[in-house]
Amino acid sequence: MTAAVLELSSDEARRLALRAQGLLGAPDRAAGVRGVLRRLGAVQLDTISVLARSHELLPYARLGAVGRPAVEAAFWSGGHAFEYWSHAACVLPIEEWPLFAFRRRAYQARGVWHHEVSPGAYASVLARLTSEGPLTATELGGSKNGGPWWDWSEAKVAVERALARGEVVCVERRGWKRVYDLAERAVPEKLFHDEVDDDECVRRLVARAGAAMGVATQADLADYHRLTGAQVERVVRDTGLVEVEVAGWGPAEGRTGRHRAWADPAALASPPRGRHRTTLLSPFDSLIWDRPRTERIFGFTHRLEAYVPRPRRIYGYFSMPLLSGGKLLGRVDPAREGSTLVARHAAFEGPPARAAKAIPAMAQALAEAASWVGCANVRVERTTPPELHAALSAAVRS
Length: 398
Prior knowledge:
The structure is a single chain. The protein is of the alpha+beta class. It is 37% helix and 19% strand. It has helices at 10-20, 32-40, 54-63, 68-76, 101-109, 119-132, 154-165, 183-186, 198-213, 218-224, 229-235, 265-269, 291-298, 352-356, 359-372, 389-397; strands at residues 6-8, 43-44, 81-85, 89-93, 135-136, 168-174, 177-182, 215-216, 242-246, 259-263, 279-280, 320-324, 327-337, 340-348, 377-380, 383-384. A hairpin with a 2-residue loop joins strand 6 (168-174) and strand 7. Helix 10 crosses helix 11 (229-235). The radius of gyration is 22 Å and the shape is globular.
């Protein structure tokens, strides 16, 4: 007889997701930035910097005004983390090094690459790192050949190939440049092995992704570390995650009724309680980086418009969703002009009467973000709906 599948309401699922991501309940300031990293399992990196870079915005959203130098030190000092390909280029807890052996093996077996590199250049990069210690691509001989951004030098191609294969590791970012070192030197000896087989790597990553999301569909679980659906399907029933159904999540392909999902048993053991965080989220925040999941949980459609031509942007270059009360109430496209944080476009969800209720939350989030980045003032340039401009401007002044 098949056991009954636990049913969750959409509100219960939303709260489970928020708590799992560290955005519901008291912030764990004692664990700090490293605690945030261990909890989430991956913090995405990106070149865009408006208020701050995305990997700085993520712990800020959970802990409040943690100093930006403290964020960098937490990630890159003491051998607590490394950078590798997960959801994208991500900072990962050093404890997860063995779990990405399946990906390193896949790169080692890969026959076709976008860039060619000579055996001599590859050996030279490894020899330089062996004799001189951690180096950037520039120090290894330059990162580009003088063409477009993808026109890498042979040294850059070689060291990135070695990074993918696991022979070198990125131990820090210096001036946003990767600093490479030999993996055998940078990874603690007890973790420096590839003994975990592919299915066990994936099983443990799926289990950790489930814990980091609270409740997730199979597609959500795959997206967290960019696994395939087949990989997740093969291991998900052995992860310890509990199969559930969430009302309102829609039917799975080829089925009727509700969409099957998986929940972290530890999350199900105690109902989520506590205070909701009011904050602005990076578009690369792991709460919302999966756009279909964001729409399913919050009924909120968000797209990064940084690479959209300016005339076609709706909300702005780097619009940041506003989280408050456990819901996404709008978004703001920020900029900095000297000591002033500029809200180029503050857009609220819903009709004016409902949107107006989110003004205090937007004002609080803007004021806190301004203080965090050292801005003394906030200026609102445009709002949607436009009739809320005066009220939001007055709220940020007070």
